[in-house]
Amino acid sequence: MDIVTNALVLRSVDYRDSDCVLTLFTENMGILTATAWGCRNRNSVLAAGCQLLCWSEMVLTKQKNLDRYKVKSATSLRDFRGIRKDLEKLALGCYFAEVMTHMNPEGNREPDLLYLTLNCLHALDRMDRPLEQVKASFELRALCLSGFEPMLAGCSICGRKDPEKIRFHPREGHFCCAGCEPARPDSITLDNEVLTCLRYIAWCEPKRILYFPITGVPLRRLSQTVESFFLTQMQRGFRSLDYFHEVYLEEPPE
After folding, report:
1. Residue 10 belongs to domain spanning
2. Is residue 145 domain-shared with residue 26, that is, in the same domain?
3. CB-based contacts of 254: which residues, under 8 Å, 6+ apart?
4. Do 192 and 89 have their domain in common?
5. 190 with 156, same domain?
6. 210 near 124, Cβ under 8 Å?
7. Which tens digits make up the pLDDT trace of 47-72?
């Protein structure tokens, strides 16, 4: 029985002489593994729709005796060409894909995570947003959707909503007023501008996730804080993130 679904290609691994094994994030079935037979042949009709980070309409069929699918057809709907032309954007897009394959096990349907990934890929492709802003928004919102939302409403000790100086704790996922608790080696000192951005990313409408102004030093602090929180909660690193840091040329803070 054939299954028609839209899917984002998160991973592509060469197999045999001309085939590829794909990790797909589908609208209907979550993440699954599929084989694209002959897609690396020069004249393959599957090639365009099976590229890494391509959003495609696919026809899949279950392979007998295997827990994977076969790609019968693939029509590219969006290839995010602006990402492919820029090494920094491509590295960041691959990081998003690696995160999704780790956070979302096969068969687990999480459409909000799919749409978050597509929105952030669209931002890299078409929107004029700093890469650090897109990255921080993706990381924090992905954590929130996966049950790791930090406690941002107020100080975890006194409840004050907007203290002047804040100590954020990546391991516990909450913040304290600087006056309520002395500095700890694992705490990150923030100001109200960064706290406001953290709240916006966690609580805003999905389609508005990147519509907040931030540049310069505050943006750098936001990016570093969210990455620290993200990696602490994931309890692992990502090779694609290491590569992004190798190729990303940070803009001087304003």
Report:
1. 2-79
2. no
3. 215, 216, 217
4. yes
5. yes
6. no
7. 999 999 999 999 999 877 677 899 99
N-terminal to C-terminal alpha carbon distance within the chain: 57
Is there a single domain that holds both residue 69 and residue 108? no
**Would you list the DSSP string of 105-157?**
-TT---HHHHHHHHHHHHHHHH----HHHHHHHHHHHHHHHTT---B-SS-TT
Please, which residues bridge with residue 177 across strands? 166
Judge if 102 and 174 occupy the same domain. yes
Residue 176 CA to residue 156 CA, distance in Å, equals 6
Do 219 and 100 belong together in one domain?
yes
Q: pLDDT tens digits for 94-138?
A: 999 999 999 887 777 889 999 999 999 999 999 999 999 999 999
Do both 160 and 51 map to the same domain?
no
**Whole-angstrom distance, CA of residue 16 vs CA of residue 51:** 17
pLDDT over 60 at 219, yes or no: yes
Give CA–CA dist 4/7, Å, rounded.
10
> What is d(CA 102, CA 146) in angstroms, rounded to the nearest whole number?
11
State how many domains the chain has: 2
Whether 35 and 71 have beta carbons less than 8 Å apart is answered as yes
Rg (CA), the chain: 20
Whether residue 253 lies inside any domain: the answer is no
Which residues are CB-contacts of 102 (< 8 A; sequence separation ≥ 6)?
234, 236, 238
